[in-house]
Amino acid sequence: MRRDLEALAATVAQRAGELMKNMRANAIRDVDTKTSAVDVVTEADCQTERLIVKLLSTARPNDAFLGEEGGVSGNPDAEITWVIDPIDGTTNYLYGIEASCVSIAATELASGDGVHWLGERESVPRKTVAAAVFNPFTDELFLATAGEGATRNGEAISVRAPESLAQALVATGFGYTEQRRAEQGAVLSKLLPQIRDIRRIGSAAFDLCLLASGRIDAYYERGIQEWDFAAGALIASEAGALIIGRAGELPGSQLLVAAHPTIAQQLRDAVTENSVG
Ligand code: IPD
Questions:
Q1: Is the pLDDT of residue 242 over 60?
Q2: Hey, which of 203, 219, 221, 256 would you mutate to test ligand 1's pocket, going by the most ligand atoms within 8 Å of its Cβ?
């Protein structure tokens, strides 16, 4: 059944990716803002999310949906909630940088095995059981089903093992408010001398897939939303990454650290030691 969810997520992500890619030239003229003047939403975000919800709800009319632009919809008692980011990496999309993805995760209330996470919108933990992240600009489709591994364009992928945190190439991201950015900058300034280098690619979903396919060694971010990480976290975890949060807390919106198991806790300690709040 979970494989069916993955297959559906894959088909829908590709259809949605085509739409958002084709809309780019026009959509970027019609830009609005959300939490701050630099947090943008384009007409393509809204239309792409509507297409995703329409395709998923046609195939699975009893499910629920949580989308970055449209919020909560569908059956409130559903077993499966689809967590959707129609364009993760909207700023890249606006500027024509080829790191923008459609991110689709089939999630359940957390129980048993798997990565349990806590999003910003819910007080109860969830877990992702199937996921698709599609970057239509690089034509890369990343998929995972819980317990069954992760793939990139049909080939199995796995994280690489860095020699140490000092040798690790670490990706991160920044929120959209001034205060959050000031805090994130302070943490980063302490971390930077302890690692190989930093990447700010601009799409959390893509960061997690780059980790999953061995092209970076780790990713962390504070303050990301469930639609940014729900799909990518399963893909990274199924590729062998450890996904953790602050000590004693679940990974998620408070903090998500994803890395090869040999460096994940050391990275978490390094980024929490200097964090504010
Ligand atoms: C953003 C990207 C970015 C991350 C931000 C997210 P959006 O999502 O994933 O890399 O640093 O925290 O909000 O706004 O492009 O969907």
A1: yes
A2: 203
